[in-house]
Design a protein that fits this description.
303 residues; 10 helices; Rossmann fold; 4-stranded mixed beta sheet; alpha/beta; globular
Length: 303
């Protein structure tokens, strides 16, 4: 007889015909329980069940905006944002900072409007966005270069897994008034990068990792907000996005709402539920002709 194993948070749940047989954080215990019950296990379900929360997804994204405000106002040194990709974590952070009048250093790269007395060009901007892979040494240099700014690590999970990088982050996120970071290694740093400096900035982590998989010492030094969602919450999040005038402004609300209703009706068979899904189906609803729903169904289920 076939049993089902699903992951709920950091624990595994063994069920058979809708009845829970066992629950444990150890897969070995689940396998033993299945064996005793005469059940076989095909594998852990790929889609993780999101644990229920008393806070709606709308409220959690409202919290997220307030948390970004707290970090940008230097009330808190760090914010960790976890949860499903493609449903507005990065957008919310960037939009909140922009609404506060803060600017990205990338927007001023190459400008020479701020030059020191010795002729050195100063890059202006309030925050810097770091994407992709980063080594511990690159992390140290990045924090030095932006020691007075907000540093946003967007989908840069390597810095949350490397032991050396984690030790650097612990210093950067400490609760002391003076947060000193040091690099004690024979490996040379870049020119003009000191082996010790005071970090006065803030850090925002945006990750698709599970919140429980992030180092506890980093979590304890940060505000944490998890926006993991069930399928119904993803649909609710899409409705929230459509309410914003800035989302696909050239398409009327009737078209966008028709797209959401279609996605809602087909969410169980959809391979992906994200803003990209909503954008694609909205465009098909507007330009796909009389058979747009067939086109949209194929798009949802075939990719």
């Amino acid at each position: 007889m076939q049993a089902t194993v699903q992951q709920v948070g950091k624990k595994f749940v063994l069920t058979h015909n809708g009845v829970r047989i066992a629950k444990s954080q150890y897969m070995s215990y689940i396998e033993e329980a299945a064996q005793k019950a005469g059940l076989s296990i095909a594998g852990v379900a790929q889609e993780e069940i999101v644990e229920k929360t008393e806070f709606s997804i709308r409220e959690r994204f409202e919290f997220l905006t307030q948390y970004v405000d707290l970090v940008s106002d230097k009330v808190m040194p760090s914010l960790i944002i976890t949860g499903d990709g493609g449903l507005g974590k990065t957008y919310t952070v960037m939009n909140t900072l922009s609404d506060k009048g803060l600017t990205d250093v990338a927007d001023s790269m190459g400008d020479d409007d701020e030059v020191s007395e010795d002729g050195e060009v100063r890059v202006v901007g309030d925050f810097a966005v770091i994407k992709g892979f980063s080594t511990a040494r690159a992390l140290y240099t990045t924090l030095w270069e932006h020691k007075n700014r907000i540093v946003i690590f967007d989908d840069c999970d390597s810095v949350l897994k490397c032991p050396i990088a984690l030790n650097i982050l612990k210093g950067a996120l400490d609760s002391y008034s003076d947060r000193w970071i040091s690099w004690k290694s024979e490996r040379m740093l870049g020119e003009n990068v000191p082996s010790m400096f005071k970090f006065k900035g803030q850090i925002i982590f945006i990750s698709n990792m599970k919140i429980g998989d992030i180092n506890q010492a980093i979590r304890s030094r940060s505000i944490c907000v998890d926006v993991s969602m069930t399928k119904n919450e993803k649909i609710d999040r899409m409705r929230q996005i459509v309410e914003e005038n800035s989302f696909m402004p050239t398409y009327n609300n009737d078209i966008k709402n028709s797209a959401i209703e279609f996605i809602d009706n087909h969410k169980e068979s959809a391979n992906e539920l994200s803003i990209r899904t909503l954008i694609s189906v909205t465009k098909l609803a507007a330009h796909g002709g009389t058979n747009w729903k067939r086109l949209a169904e194929y798009t949802l289920t075939s990719q």
